[in-house]
């Protein structure tokens, strides 16, 4: 190990990306060499079940700037990213997807903006045509809902690909939660921010590890991590429903007083019971989501476990 100070730290999470390792590293190293600043590439192997680790170890033989953090199992992208961030030494840190959907060429612009004095440089996708229509619509909906009900606004179409300075990273590491919704955490800390625009490419090899169910849970994680509105809204739903039933009840009493009793009413009774039952269950469900998170958080387990550093 030399004592040269590292300027740029790349953080690259790998999960079953055996076909991407060489392609990715070659591309990134080419860009970094152009910049001519001391760099390191922190590769986190997030419990891959294929040859990712072997490929990374092989790549390291030709490039000592590669650092490999091997997690003990698959902890998910957010945890892998957190692990990578914790092991960086550089003045600026750039997390990047390893499927080349985040174009490495942008690193040059990141650095240019950092040199102008920005602490955070974001990369915003102007073109999501590489995503399916369904993913685009649901992503848009997620940002809309999230930013409506949460004080921490996350910028739309900005992923984890960005530059942050050490100062920002230190702030991020002050946040003690072990379930980490990184997009929200990045946004929460603030700092002087510039935004670049880019076109998101298609994955170069392998396939995405996020299916609809995973994305849905990711969205819920995002909202419950940064907003308590879903909890508080039930007060108002309750008030509204009680108010309506009070009005309806009063109307029934008056009608009985003036027009006498009429027995039929099966259908309306059943519907209102089922409807209210449904609303209550939704309320419980939301409580459950938060309780589950409090429960997991209260265990104070580490976010990830490292098997070894190579
Ligand atoms: N990834 C990871 N752990 C996981 C899932 C994904 O480290 O459990 C990494 C993956 O190797 C890639 C990045 O996270 O570098 C983005 O994953 P992917 O391309 O599957 O997500 P998408 O681009 O479809 O959102
Ligand atoms: Mg991808």
SSE blueprint:
Elements: E1 8-14, H1 21-35, E2 39-45, H2 52-62, E3 66-71, H3 77-86, E4 92-95, H4 106-115, E5 120-127, H5 133-149, E6 158-165, H6 166-174, H7 182-189, E7 193-199, H8 212-226, H9 229-259, H10 266-298, E8 306-309
Parallel strand pairs: 1-2, 1-4, 2-3, 5-7
Antiparallel strand pairs: 3-8, 4-6, 5-6
Helix pairs in contact: 5-8
The protein binds uridine-5'-diphosphate and magnesium ion.
Uridine-5'-diphosphate binds at residues 13-15, 17, 46, 74, 76-77, 80, 97-99, 101, 203, 208-210.
Notes on the structure:
The chain has helices at residues 21-35, 52-62, 77-86, 106-115, 133-149, 166-174, 182-189, 212-226, 229-259, 266-298, and strands at residues 8-14, 39-45, 66-71, 92-95, 120-127, 158-165, 193-199, 306-309. Strand 1 (8-14), helix 1 and strand 2 (39-45) form a beta-alpha-beta unit. The two termini are 12 Å apart. The chain contains 10 helices and 8 strands. It folds into 2 domains: 8-214 and 303-309, Spore Coat Polysaccharide Biosynthesis Protein SpsA, Chain A, CATH 3.90.550; 229-298, no CATH class. The chain is elongated, with a radius of gyration of 25 Å. By secondary structure, the chain is α/β, with parallel strands linked by helices. The chain binds uridine-5'-diphosphate (UDP) and magnesium ion. Magnesium ion (MG) binds at residues 97, 99, 101, 203, 208.
